[in-house]
Every structure is written in C-alpha cells, then in structure tokens.
Write a structure and sequence with these properties.
Blueprint: H1 3-36, H2 44-70, H3 72-75, H4 79-107, H5 116-138
Helix pairs in contact: 1-2, 1-4, 2-4, 4-5
C-alpha cells in the first residue's frame, strides 16, 4: 500500500475517531447529569439500553487505536502521523469508560466514588504520556551546523 493511500485511509480513521469522541462526550454529559441528580435507582431497562450503546461506542473507540498501533501496514507509517488519531481514539475510549463509571455511581448502591477516582488517575496518566510523546516526536532537533 502506498503512502498516499495510507494517508487517505488515515483520514477515514480520523473521521471515526471524531464520531466516537462526539458519542462518548454525549454519554459523558448524560452520566454527569444523572450523577448530579439526587440518588435514585435507574430501571434495569434504562440501564441495559444505555449499556448496549456504551458497548458499541467503546468498541468503535478502541478499534482505531488497536489497528493503527498493531497492524503491520500501519506500523510502516511514522508514529508522528498516527499519534493524534491513536490518542484521540484512546481519549474517546477513556471518556466512554468514565461515563460508565459515573453511571455506575449514580445508579447502583454499592458503587461510590471508588469507581471514578481510578478512572481520573488513568486519564491523568494517559494525558501525561501523550504530552511526553508529542514533545519527543514534534520537537525539532537542534542544528549542529548552522
């Protein structure tokens, strides 16, 4: 596969990542709204319907990162071209996972904030890794001979 074909396919992956970011953001807003309401029990049918949508969004959000990191053809493309798409995909997956944690906290009696706090720590670690990789890949090396 040529470089131009891979770059064209990368734009399709980026469109999927943007769609997943939007869906995960919507789920996150919905979960935050439920978490801010007074304690109430969510009906099983409401919870299961939301859970199916979450499974679909989570699967679609993880797929681009897995393919762009592990597939043999994509590994030939420099990481600097794939980095934003991969971490956008991971960010969408994290947002969907965080919304799941908030939904558990708002709807079930046994789940308090011990579900949410590790997810916040995971988000901070992923952000730190992204910033470190971006700084390493996108900083221009100093010229030895001006």
């Amino acid at each position: 596969m040529s470089l131009e074909q891979m770059e064209f396919r990368l734009t399709k992956w980026q469109a999927l990542v943007w769609a997943c970011l939007g869906a995960a953001g919507g789920q996150l807003l919905s979960s935050v709204a439920d978490a801010l309401q007074p304690r109430r029990q969510i009906g099983l049918d409401q919870y299961l319907s939301w859970l199916w949508v979450w499974i679909i969004v989570q699967t679609l959000a993880v797929a681009p990162a897995v393919v762009l990191i592990l597939h043999r053809d994509w590994r030939s493309l420099p990481l600097s071209l794939r980095l934003r798409c991969v971490f956008g995909s991971i960010a969408a997956a994290w947002m969907a996972l965080f919304s799941f944690g908030l939904r558990l906290r708002s709807g079930l009696d046994f789940a308090e904030y011990h579900v949410v706090i590790p997810l916040l720590i995971l988000g901070a670690v992923l952000t730190w890794i992204y910033i470190r990789l971006r700084n390493q890949l996108f900083t221009a090396p100093e010229a030895m001979f001006p």
